[in-house]
Amino acid sequence: MADSGIHIKPENKGKFTASSKAAGQSVQQHASSVLNNPKASKKQKQRAQFAKNARKWKHRGSKRK
After folding, report:
1. Could you tell me the pTM of the whole model?
2. pLDDT per residue over 35-49, tens digit each?
3. In three state form, how does the secondary structure of 9-62 look?
4. What CA–CA distances, in Å, run from 61 to 8, 24, 30?
5. Please, what is the average pLDDT of the chain?
6. How far apart are CA 6 and CA 25, in angstroms?
7. 45 CB contacts (<8 Å, ≥6 apart)?
8. What distance in Å separates the CA atoms of residue 40 and residue 32, rounded to the nearest whole number?
9. Which of 26, 24, 30 lies closest to 44 in space, CA to CA?
10. How far apart are CA 30 and CA 17, in angstroms?
11. What is the DSSP letter of 3?
12. 11-20: per-residue pLDDT in tens?
């Protein structure tokens, strides 16, 4: 299988998901609210944009079309 070229450090995996759960939102809702928030940190905005981009990818084992 081909390597996607995207590597997330193990200590950073799940940080944005944890942030969205703490905010009481889905990951996509939280990504939108972070990107629209001028006070959000640069790192949080990067994670939000990554989440929005990753939604479009074909994930293994996913039932999404």
Report:
1. 0.80
2. 999 999 999 999 999
3. CHHHCCHHHHHHHHCCCCHHHHHHHHHCCCCCCHHHHHHHHHHHHHCCCCCCCC
4. 20, 26, 24
5. 89
6. 25
7. 34, 35
8. 11
9. 30
10. 9
11. -
12. 999 999 999 9
**At which residue do the structure tokens 């997330």 appear?**
8
HSE value, Cβ hemisphere, 13 Å, CA-based, for 9: 4
CA distances from 62 to 36, 55, 56, 65 (A): 29, 11, 12, 8
In angstroms, the Cα distances linking 64 to 3, 32, 48, 49, 60 are 21, 20, 20, 20, 10
Tokens 């989440």, residue located? 51
Residue with tokens 């944005």: 16
